Amino acid sequence: MLRFLVLFRRMLWVFQFTESRSEEISSPCDQYKKGITEILTSLRPQFLTEVPMKVLAINGSPHMDRGNTALILQPLLEGMKDAGAEVDLFYSRNLNIQPCIGDLSCWIKHPGECAQKDDMQILYPKFRAAEALVFASPVYYAGVTGSLKNLIDRMLPLHSFAQGKDVRRQKVVLVSTCAAWEMEMFKPLLVQFEAICPKTEDSPMQLAGALLRPHAHSLKPMLHGNSRPLAEDVLKAARQAGTELATENSISQKTLERVSQELMAKDAYEKAMQEWFLHPDDSM
Ligand SMILES: Cc1cc2nc3c(=O)[nH]c(=O)nc-3n(C[C@H](O)[C@H](O)[C@H](O)COP(=O)(O)O)c2cc1C
Question: Which tens digits make up the pLDDT trace of 133-174?
């Protein structure tokens, strides 16, 4: 098997090399080689020839690794790493990112360059190199957290006219959790991300999927109780989503629905939440 793979890879190299040297020649032999190259390229196993997908993930929850949002984000990123992706994770709470001052100098005076020199300067090269961006946030008043919104507004230099048509087209994944039982709570957030990532050909960002976890406060207690398999299935689905994105560039609807699946009846959840507000502890 290994021999076959090595041979396959060599064949690819040979054909790609001869093709790259024969741009101006177009004899029937060259055309034949070009055809073979196209067939081999379409057949190649991903892990043989492709560079790993670069992913930049931002967790906007002030609870960082301890929060509900991290419960979904972590397996998602693990799934991406399983599939060979290179993942960089930042927490907006830990970054010094000032709000955008709105002078548009990044579009007009110094296209592509932000006038403010703070931790966004660390992120700009990472944004430019990434093929996929993951934005994770709890729902805060129907939107993302303030620190994540500041960061998103500061992405403007990346989308200036100066980028022209050379701009890298990036996949975007949204991860969010909320306290409410209903999926409807995510609607405004989804509308915002669908607007940021329009389904047009020239859009620099494309929404690959949204991992939405309603009644998120049921997850932690369930992971430590009798209903563990159900809660674990949510985490497995999040991991699966990561693998799908890194290998297929998309996330299936089935996997997204597993992440959002109902974990308990609305009445039971709301009762448990009321109890918890009266006697708060680390369980939720
Ligand atoms: C300031 C604030 C605003 C919130 N707004 C909403 C809201 O509009 N809808 C909702 O369902 N939950 C809301 N929540 C609850 C969080 O979305 C929920 O607890 C989330 O799972 C927390 O994630 P984390 O543990 O990763 O921070 C809010 C919480 C805070 C602190």
Answer: 999 999 999 999 999 999 999 999 999 876 666 667 899 999
Is the CB–ligand 1 distance for residue 72 below 6 Å? Answer: no
Query: How far away, in angstroms, is 177 Cα from ligand 1 center?
Result: 7
Domain boundaries, position 10: 2-47
Identify whether 34 is part of a domain.
yes
The confidence score (pLDDT) of residue 161 equals 72
Residue 163, domain member (yes or no) = yes
Q: Tell me, in angstroms, the distance from the centre of ligand 1 to residue 140's CA.
A: 5
Ligand 1, atom 6: closest residue by C-alpha: 140
61 and 132 belong to one structural domain? yes
b/e 63-85 (16+ beta carbons within 10 angstroms → b) = eeeebbbbbbbbbbbbbbbebeb
Q: What predicted TM-score, i.e. pTM, was given to this entire model? A: 0.84
Nearest protein CA to atom 15 of ligand 1, as residue: 179
Distance CA 32, CA 40 (A): 12
Question: Are residues 82 and 212 both part of a single domain?
Answer: yes
